[in-house]
Amino acid sequence: MNFEYSEKEEKFRSEVREWLKETLPEYLSEKVKKYQRLTKEDYELFMNNLSQKGWLAWHWPEEYGGTGWNAIEKHIFEEEIVKASAPRIVPFGVNMLGPVLIEFGSEEQKNYYLPRILNNEDWWAQGYSEPGAGSDLASLKTTAVDKGDYYLVNGQKTWTTLGHHADKIFCLVKTDLNVKPQLGISFLLIDMDSPGVEVKPIITLDGEHEVNEVWFTNVKVPKKNLVGKENEGWTYAKYLLTFERTGIAGVPNSKSALNHLKMVSRKSMKNGKPLIEDPMFSSEVAELEIDLLAMEIFNLRTVSAAAEGKAPGMESSLLKIKGTLVRQKTTELLRKALGPQALPYLPEQFDEGWNEMPIGPEYAGPIAKQYFNMRKISIYGGSNEIQKNIVAKASFGL
Amino acid sequence: MDFSLSEERKMLQETVARFFENNYKDINKRSKYLEMNDGFSRDFWKESANLGIISGLVSPNFGGLGGSGEDISIIFELIGKSLCIEPFLSSGLLSSTVLSSIENPKTELINQIVDGELLISFAHMEMNNRYEDHFVETKAFLENDNWKLNGSKSFVINGDSADKVIISARIDGEINDKNGIGLFLVDNNQIKNRSYNTIDGYRAAELNFENIEAELLCKNDLALECIIKTNSAGALALSAEAIGIMQVCFELTLDYLKTRKQFGKSIGAFQSIQHRMVDMMLEIEQVRSAVMLASSTFETNSSTRDKNVSAAKNLVGRVGKLIAEESIQLHGGIAMTWEYSVAHYAKRLIMIDHLMGDADYHRDRFKLLSLN
How far apart are CA B270 and CA B265, in angstroms? Predict the structure, then answer.
């Protein structure tokens, strides 16, 4: 056993690090560090840089213009992006739709869409969840009726992340209402500027606009936009959901949040002494750090098995559960560390160029907001309860 | 990065696993061993020596065949699976660690331990020193150039059957001074001992002694280092043992969920129970990961070693409680019986948190090594 990275892997790491240092503008990493709102252009700038470097399609095989990286290289890449405080790579086109098209798309679809994703020309959104279909995704209600050379789509999608920036959306729709829910679903690609598509913002509990409702009223979608076969969309949807996600545990994010927590609890005072010297509080931090340390090795074990070609099964679900709990715990302790400094809420503080005096230390501003925002991670991507169902079904034989 | 075991280690694992399985198949055999004179089977111990299992805990520098963090973990995980009660920890690991870490290593004694001919127990704990490495009340003094010891040692595992005992004693200073401690080797026949069984099925003894003759092994900084290293070795071994136990608890519980029927279906069909099993499975993987890290860094510098061992032992304490309590709860009444094995696994798992530092102790040590 040996948990060190090889020389080749370390070389790769410094290559990624150097590249980020050269190409990521300082104003952008500062915005990310301060949890300021990112504009569409902020995301695009980073993704265009990646595209030019040939690193945008970091999950794809080389023959389709991807990097061909193995799981360990992907893991390193993800770590460095977080360490550099780069914006996240908007995953819907490149990480989600791309692999589905590569596996199930027609030649025409591959030839048209994949290069556009590679060149960052389209902003894709994900049209899965509906008001009545969350964890029970197959109960979705949006319909697509066959009208000869097009489908007529009616219904509503929700929680559409960054959908207000999107040019296109991939959707799960019902094409057969008379069969078991899973058997009547199809996978459609829809232009957001089609007549009848309407995007309405959802403001989340932290006051932010990140997610949306997308309404479809008599939207005409050409038949050529169907991916794979009609009524087999559930297979593709599942493929997308279980598609190798080395980053599912969010180890790099939690590590950086833990460092932030240590910094904040050195600065926060209790009875005239730094909070980190309070035995109760520091005990919570220490046990969180131990959980994270163990999870990092658990994640690496899974990553290294994936690099050897073993498909991660229930490990992905277990890591999703633990990863979200650890991440949420860091935001909880950050919130506790602030004491009453967590109270002020100045939404304008998160706009670019805001230069007024903060109330309390500048780092305090986003912490409570971030705590509330992070409640989502144990709900989305298959809630933690769904992950437990998956593990129980797959490995207990009950 | 490489998470697999080398061929030699796989072989070690297979040999030990097969041997333990053949000798510890059912819990009644363990109870019989415990009822023997020494609280364990001398025959089993001797055979373990012949198969080279004890030597797997000792470095080749001192005549062993293993001794690395990984070797220790492999052997102790299997000890946990079988709930084996022979003196692997007391003689095989702790005493050989002390004897090999001193200025003039006692290679000959180590060889006798490895051959199964000599038992030496490590006696550091006292009635009131909890898990501290430098809190020592027992006194050592020189009389006509000979070392003599006065005091008592508690909870000495296999302290009744040991031929010799390694005793920590204060040469100088206050009761909790870091400096002034010595480690001494003593013939056990000089000592009055009161032996008893522990609640998790081990044999231990209280040692009381007055002006007994002792041989100084090391003192001051070196003695403290030696105690810390030995405690870390023990904490690593117990953590690995805990993995084996947790795995068995999990499997026994899962089996039971499939066979036990209530309300017309197997109780494993209930979602509330399935979710608790997933929590157990997840936490066992966390512990396994922490122990892998601790064993692979066991030979590095002492602060990395102790930090990672403390992370593992803290997690073992927390998760051990979860697994022990949930295994009993999910079984229901049957787990409350002496006859059914899960109870014995659960008891050992809980009591592991009372040896070589509990979850709180190791959390605090981790804190010192990591936050500052």
Answer: 9
User: CA A315 to CA A297: how far, in whole Å?
Assistant: 12
| Interchain contact A298–B (C-beta under 8 A) | yes
Measuring CA to CA, how many Å separate B278 from each of A95, A318, A343, B7, B51?
28, 8, 37, 32, 38
Cα gap B223→B216, rounded to integer Å: 10
E-strand ranges in chain B read 120-123, 139-143, 146-157, 164-170, 181-187, 192-197, 203-219, 261-262, 265-266
Chain A CB contacts of B290 below 8 Å: 290, 293-294, 297
Phi then psi for residue A336, to 5 deg, are -60, -40
Q: Give B-chain residues touching A388 at CB under 8 angstroms.
A: 274-275, 278-279
* pTM of full prediction above 0.90: yes
Contacts of A94 (CB under 8 A, 6+ apart): A56, A57, A58, A59, A60, A117
Does A72 contact chain B (CB < 8 Å)?
Answer: yes
| 8 Å CB contact of B363 and A5 | no
Q: Tell how strand B120-123 and strand B164-170 pair up.
A: parallel
Domain boundaries, chain A: 7-89, 124-233, 244-395
Q: Which tokens belong to A111?
A: 């030839």
The rounded distance, in Å, linking the Cα atoms of B75 and B81 is 10
Question: Pairing state of beta strands A269-270 and B265-266?
Answer: unpaired
pLDDT tens digits, chain A, 398 residues: what are they? 778 899 999 999 999 999 999 999 999 999 999 999 999 999 999 999 999 999 999 889 999 999 989 888 998 999 999 999 999 999 999 999 999 999 999 999 999 999 999 999 999 999 999 999 988 899 999 999 999 999 999 999 999 999 999 999 999 999 999 999 999 999 999 999 999 999 999 999 999 999 999 999 999 999 999 999 999 999 998 888 766 555 778 999 999 999 999 999 999 999 999 999 999 999 999 999 999 999 999 999 988 887 777 766 789 899 999 999 999 999 999 999 999 999 999 999 999 888 899 999 999 999 999 999 999 999 998 899 999 999 999 999 88
**Cα–Cα distance between A94 and A124 in angstroms, integer?**
9
Pairing of strands A168-174, A124-127: parallel
Q: Are B83 and B154 in contact (CB under 8 A)?
A: no
Secondary element (H or E) of residue A109: helix A107-118
What ipTM does the predicted assembly reach?
A: 0.94
- Would the CB atoms of A1 and B268 count as touching at under 8 Å? no
A139 inside 8 A of chain B by CB: no
> Is the Cβ pair B1, A322 closer than 8 Å?
no
* B278, B285, B364: residue with CB nearest A298: B285
DSSP for B53-108, written as a single string: TGGGGS-GGGT-S--SHHHHHHHHHHHHHHT--STIIIIIIIIHHHHHHSSS--HH
Inter-chain CB proximity A389 and B271 less than 8 Å: yes
CATH fold of A244-395: Butyryl-CoA Dehydrogenase, subunit A; domain 3 (1.20.140)
Question: Using the beta-carbon criterion (under 8 Å), do B293 and A282 form an inter-chain contact?
Answer: no
CA pair distance B237, B230, nearest whole angstrom: 11
Kindly report the CATH class assigned to A124-233.
Answer: mainly beta
Contacts of B255 in chain A (CB under 8 A): none
Structural domains of chain B sorted by starting position, each given as residue range(s) with its CATH number in brackets: 7-119 (1.10.540.10), 121-219 (2.40.110.10), 225-370 (1.20.140.10)
Q: Closest by alpha carbon to B211, among B277, B156, B142, B259?
A: B142
**Cβ(B328)–Cβ(B336) below 8 Å:** yes
DSSP annotation of A137 reads G
| Degrees, nearest 5: CA angle A281-B275-A248 | 65
Measured between CB atoms, which of B1, B275, B290 is closest to A300? Answer: B1
B171: tokens are 């040469």
